[in-house]
């Protein structure tokens, strides 16, 4: 979310820039070659990771894919539930722990293979940057759709909101977008994040915010780690200058299930591929490999040393879990060896605590 705001700053500033390269000739370059070489602009896909730094866990508390299409003047935002199940070396894990355990390469490759796309760039942001940015914007007005109450004494997180209109400063805004202690859990949190993002984008387009863009941008870049260069951001903003931009938000389709008594979101493979083709396809020629060697800690290293990516394929050393293609084919028989126990996930009570990992990561 934080990086999308940074990109928006550039899009606003672009109104004052001289167009150097016409949009229909724009190419985003990287060292060693062009991302879209010899072609008119396709989509630039950016993986955005909000890092939870509580007690040094560094899990991806928020994860979404940003697809930017300058030619179509479209931005697609795909939220990926943190409980999405992935399989690494035959072990099912939640996707929010992949970055911390196995690194960014593994996380990016899993999403690429699931959706059959190419991720060109990535961005990692921290909580403090989000707080500072919202404070610099003077806070955000939003309507709280339901009472929200949650206390995590270990993580020092206390969330308390009453139903109705509210003005959120940076700290309160972070609490709002992190809350998931209700019947909809992670999926409800994603909807709130998208609602909040819409309010932020609307405020950024006001004259008062345009005057403060340089300050906002400088603060934002203090808390961003990315392989996007400043030149690329400038080129992107130039290509997107002028006129309205169509922003579409969506979530990775899947179904909540218990696997071995652990709650997961099992993604629908076919629907994920369709979303990839419609909103995140680019013009690169690519080969998707279903397996690769992962340098794991000793405690996590199995005999095979092969990571099975969401999506699977013939090259995997061992057969990965077959992802359900549609809602009518949730758990195919071929997955039984790796999914010994499954059962439908009943919705938790509205007052119940969120599903926290054993390590104690915050909701």
From TrEMBL:
Q: Name one Pfam family in it.
A: LytR_cpsA_psr
Xref: InterPro entries: LytR/CpsA/Psr_CW_biosynth (IPR050922), LytR_CpsA_psr (IPR004474)
Region Disordered: which residues? 334-363
TM regions (residue ranges): none
Which domain of life does the UniProt lineage start with?
Answer: Bacteria
Q: Where is the Cell envelope-related transcriptional attenuator domain?
A: 59-205
Q: Can you tell me which family this protein belongs to?
A: Belongs to the LytR/CpsA/Psr (LCP) family.
For this protein, the record's PANTHER family field holds: POLYISOPRENYL-TEICHOIC ACID--PEPTIDOGLYCAN TEICHOIC ACID TRANSFERASE TAGU
NCBIfam families (UniProt xref): lytR_cpsA_psr
What's the protein name? Cell envelope-related transcriptional attenuator domain-containing protein
**Organism of origin:** Candidatus Ozemobacter sibiricus
Q: What is the lineage of its organism?
A: Bacteria, Candidatus Ozemobacteria, Candidatus Ozemobacterales, Candidatus Ozemobacteraceae, Candidatus Ozemobacter
